[in-house]
Write a structure and sequence with these properties.
This protein has helices at residues 24-31, 70-84, 101-109, 123-130, 159-164, 179-188, 217-224, 237-240, 245-256; strands at residues 8-13, 35-38, 55-58, 61-62, 65-66, 86-91, 115-118, 144-148, 169-173, 195-200, 208-213, 230-234. By secondary structure, it is of the alpha/beta class. The chain has two domains: 8-118, Cobalt-precorrin-4 Transmethylase, domain 1; 123-256, Methyltransferase, Cobalt-precorrin-4 Transmethylase, Domain 2 (2-Layer Sandwich). Strand 10 and strand 11 (208-213) form a beta hairpin. Residues 9-217 form the Tetrapyrrole methylase domain. Belongs to the precorrin methyltransferase family.
């Protein structure tokens, strides 16, 4: 008698890029997977935790280049779970931080398929931390905002304007295409001298960083040829990083010339 397929879906956060930042629980889930659907921001080295016989399907999305639509991804998760059993949906960072993980869980559960979530280390926290940027620091920053730079209708989030009025550290994901708008909002609040950092491919061997102020960060991006995927960090805590002191010494020296 054939063994009945037991469909299960586990949503796993792959972390910010460094494969060593995958959680132990995430690795265990991959080891038990029959099928893995993975994103562009999930380091492919992580797939080594999966059985060799597991089916691996790339469903990544980049700006202007989508392998599958979100609806197609949702259906792929369900179809593979019903056909093969345990599906691991591997998503970069944490699946519930701008990862559409909630939408995928809702869709899968509408078919009566059990789901589990393994949180991942969010790039919004880990990438600045790798550069010694503490998003909160006593006497410097009491809170932080994490905001998407690009909403579902391809516009800049209104929350950026609100964040620019606060004294909090501001972390913006998926915001490189809206950088000039972000700069304008902070300058309108007379915050042109606030430190800013842009970190591309954070926590990976391809990591690149540029630092400056709101007034100069656009020039820094051009000089260092920074692009997506990158995280924008704005706030006094950027200047507090011991790792970035060399960058700021060079920056100040240029400003004084």
């Amino acid at each position: 008698m054939l063994k009945k397929i037991q469909p299960i879906v586990t949503l796993v956060g792959a972390g910010p890029g460094d494969p060593d930042l995958l959680t132990i629980k995430g690795a265990k889930a991959l080891a038990e997977a029959n099928v893995i659907l993975y994103d562009a921001l999930a380091n492919e080295e992580i797939l080594s935790y999966a059985p060799k016989k597991a089916i691996k399907i790339f469903v990544g999305k980049r700006k202007g280049c989508h392998e599958y639509t979100q609806d197609q991804i949702n259906q792929l998760i369900v179809d593979n779970a019903l056909t093969y059993g345990h599906v691991v949906r591997l998503k970069g960072g944490d699946p519930f931080i701008f990862g559409r993980g909630g939408e995928e869980i809702d869709f899968v559960e509408s078919f009566g398929i059990p789901t589990f979530v393994v949180p991942g280390i969010s790039s919004s926290i880990a990438v600045p931390a790798y550069q010694g940027i503490s998003l909160t620091k006593r006497g410097v920053s009491e809170s932080f905002w994490v905001i998407t730079g690009t909403t579902s209708d391809r516009k800049l989030s209104n929350d950026v304007a609100l964040a620019a009025q606060s004294s909090a550290t501001v972390v913006i994901l998926m915001g490189m295409s809206k950088l000039s708008q972000i700069i304008d909002l902070f300058q309108k609040e007379s915050k042109g001298e606030i430190p800013a950092a842009i970190i591309q491919n954070g926590t990976t061997a391809q990591e690149k960083i540029g630092v400056g102020t709101i007034n100069t960060i656009q020039q820094v991006v051009t000089e260092h040829k920074l692009s997506s995927p990158a995280i924008i960090v704005i706030g006094e805590v950027v200047k507090e990083s011991n790792k970035l002191k060399g960058f700021y010494e060079d920056f100040i020296a240029k400003e004084l010339k």
